[in-house]
Write the structure tokens for this entry.
Amino acid sequence: MRIQRPNTPLWKIFAATFGFRILLFFIGLAACAALCGHKTFQSAYSSFTQRWDAWHYIRLAEQGYAGYMEDGKHLFLVFFPGYVWALRAMCLLIPDTAAAGLVLSALCCAGGYCYVYKLTETYYNARVARSALLYLALFPYSFFSGLVMTEGLFLLATAGAVYYAVKRKWLLFAVFGIVSALTRMTGLLVILPAFVELCIAELPGKRNPGRTWKVALRRGVPRLLLLAVPLLGTGGYLLLNYIVDGDPLAFMTMQEHWHQGFMWLPGVLRYVTAYLISSFGTENGWFLWLPTLLLFVLSVLILVLSALKREARNPALWSHAAIYLIVTYSLSWLLSAGRYLSCCFALFILLAKLTEKKPRLRTVILCIEAVCMLVFLGVYAKSGPVL
């Protein structure tokens, strides 16, 4: 008989996660200095902290959406404002914008891990919750959660929103849902698992014996309205577009500059495969297109196995992971699939449940993740195609 270890205190999870983010940052900083030939700490620090999208978030926090332009256009309206506004608030305490962003992301990531742990523990048990955190922490792209990017805040907001939906604390769900929708376009997807949980909680059935439809509607309709509150976050983003550029849909025009837009999933998979074939053996092939395609296959495998295995089957988590995967892989120029999937906490929870009774497989997966993460962090540090 396997003995269930006691639950891990949240303060330990928070401290361990925060410390791990700091450790990864210094590993990346050392890799940047070694691989890029930086002679001073300041040179390596500036290069590593202001790479790819991080540069834009720092400029947006410092200059604002109206002030930060390129070619006379507000091209950076494509970046949602949740993280930018949080970063500006953090700068009131830490004057250096990059340092403020690092601290903000690490704190948010640590808080997000606490919610993922509590959510998994609520659905399954503490052992599965610990495995989910390990899978999440060692995911090859997880280091983005500690950089000046949106991953840390987005994980905190989405995991928090789903957790409070599970706990039927709909006002708190609404608050976290607004932040989620303000941070990324996919933030609105928290409405789906919340709707699933609301149906489970209120509709007549085996879980609610004796519940009538009249009672279900009386209780459910007000809560259903709270489920729509995250739309206010999207509304705030559209309002920002209107204030800055005079058009609430200005971001759609700006997306064309970045070659971004909607594309049906089969079309995305076709062009990813084509790019992989044409660039096979090159850095782009190994670190951009191959992981993009491989992560999709592995994610689908997790979803299929979770749907087939009864004890792992969870409608709220499964629906969130599935729709998140589909939306992520519906972009016309998908360069950051791994970074986006690093926030899909539901996938890691489902994987933890699937491997609960397979300790050797769990160890192999974690070792592969850890090695890949160090390799990808090194590629990112030298400005390679990990973005």
Notes: The radius of gyration is 21 Å. Residues 27 and 209 are 55 Å apart (CA to CA). The chain has a mean pLDDT of 93. DSSP finds 18 helices and no strands in the chain.
